[in-house]
């Protein structure tokens, strides 16, 4: 069950799917526009879909109440299909022996009378404008499709929405439940299959079952070079980035991690192999034996001096292995007046870029904006690389427009060094042969799950490294 919680940014351990008709093999994510097209293409009349949605809502309500007879339920219903879903649920709950009051949005009082449960069916994914919810007291809230007043595409809160304890959404996940304020307002999210065809969804939310299917445990015939990772990271004053990146790669399954920090000797885990390179003109020494490695991680803590930028660009251009570029490496990619695209499109092997919002702005020339799915998809297509846009819900896109979202992270990851750990994890997955889109998404999920195993307060990046093997052990 996805615990989106009342506090924005809380961890999302899983998704609970309760199929009403058929079953789901994946967790599709569809925008409001895509959802409208799916509804329009349904072979069943809208009345049938409303009845199915109403039954799914009533089932969740019954579980939340722990019983039926004698309970009191308040339903806030709008004039659209979302309101009709709430009314259909009300009919079923009345038939169970509950007292159900239905309040029309247009005439809803500022304060609702006491109840055992409030069903928020005021507005759905097509909501525009603003809405201020009534005071519902201490009653738990069940939102229908998404909390009313939340933008279904961006998760932006428009007015005063009710914080739901649980949201039942239909056919697919909605972006508004994963991003912005909507993530914190949705509570636990359940996806109910009501018979709609979501097979053309261009984005999917990943969970443990996906990562388990993609992850490649080390085979009995493995040797230390089988999944070797080369890392170029760290600079004076930034040696921690090298430590975190290389340590994470080894904990995530690499049998050999060789690290170079140009011009310096960093302090790293004892298992890491150090390879000295000069402080200047180090591209060729790195490339000389790169064929022995399965992946290259470059950029964490390298600095932004001109000579570093030149060396990063030459190394990325010449690398004939999958490359992950993070941190200062992303700055180097855009240093040339032509930007990153010509360099990246000239590569024959996969490239993964891992920007946060500020680094996205460097690569794209503007910030990602509120529609993070579209922003990531467009940047990946423009650069010809897999792009991972960091956030509580991390978005990964490939150049063909396929999008995967990992929602395992939370606000504890917003601390120095966690991005370096993520780079190392993805580097190890690339070295194991996981395709780049899946490697990036799985790495983000593992990274978030490692945070969940850490302390609730005071989590630091090195805590994640120790937790990575525990996450992988659970997958196995």
Give your account of this protein's structure.
The chain is an alpha/beta fold. It folds into 2 domains: 2-205, Rossmann fold, CATH 3.40.50.10260; 209-475, Ribokinase (UDP-N-acetylmuramoyl-L-alanine:D-glutamate ligase, 3-Layer(aba) Sandwich), CATH 3.40.1190.20. It has helices spanning 32-41, 46-65, 81-95, 180-185, 208-214, 239-251, 283-288, 306-318, 328-333, 341-345, 357-364, 372-383, 418-431, 436-452, 461-475; strands spanning 2-3, 16-17, 28-29, 72-77, 99-104, 117-121, 131-132, 141-144, 159-160, 166-170, 188-192, 203-205, 229-232, 257-260, 273-274, 295-298, 323-325, 351-353, 386-389, 394-397, 403-406. The strands form 3 sheets. It has an 11-stranded mixed beta sheet with strand order 3-12-21-20-19-18-17-16-13-14-15. Helix 3 (81-95) links the parallel strand 4 (72-77) and strand 5 (99-104). The longest helix has 20 residues, at 46-65. The protein is elongated, with a radius of gyration of 24 Å. It starts with a strand and ends with a helix.
